[in-house]
Amino acid sequence: MGKEVIYFATFKQEQEQTRWLHIGRVFVTIITYFFYSNMCYRTIGKFFVVSMFTEKKGVGK
User: Fold this and answer.
1) Of 7, 26, 1, nearest to 15 (Cα)?
2) Tens-of-pLDDT digits for all 61 residues of the chain?
3) What distances in angstroms separate CA 3 from CA 6, 7, 9, one per listed residue?
4) 18/59 Cα distance (integer angstroms)
5) Distance of alpha carbon 26 from its chain centroid, rounded?
6) pTM given for the model
7) Where are the alpha helices (DSSP H) in 1-61?
8) Listed residue (27, 30, 50) closest to 38, CA to CA
9) How far is Cα 9 from Cα 2, in angstroms, rounded to an integer?
10) Helix or strand or coil: residue 61?
């Protein structure tokens, strides 16, 4: 009986650790995804703005 209780306690602890690891991994993944998507949007926005300005200048000529 004692062995089972100890085993169950360690198993529960491992479950908690794995759950927190999983949550941390998901959190990190979301943060990196948002970071990279934000960077991509910024570069795309820069290109878009530059192209718009060049187009306007071309039209002005």
Assistant:
1) 7
2) 567 777 777 888 888 888 888 889 999 998 888 888 888 788 888 888 888 777 766 555 4
3) 5, 6, 10
4) 60
5) 7
6) 0.44
7) 2-60
8) 30
9) 11
10) coil
Sequence-ordered list of residues with C-beta below 8 angstroms from that of 7, at least 6 positions apart, any chain: none
Cα atoms in the Cβ-side hemisphere of radius 13 Å centred on 49 = 6
- The pair of structure tokens assigned to 41 is 């949007």
Reported residue count of the chain is: 61
DSSP state of 30: H
3-class secondary structure, 1: coil
Cα-based angle 44, 46, 49 (whole degrees, multiple of 5):
105
* Residue 19 amino acid letter: R
> Which amino acid would we find at residue 23?
I
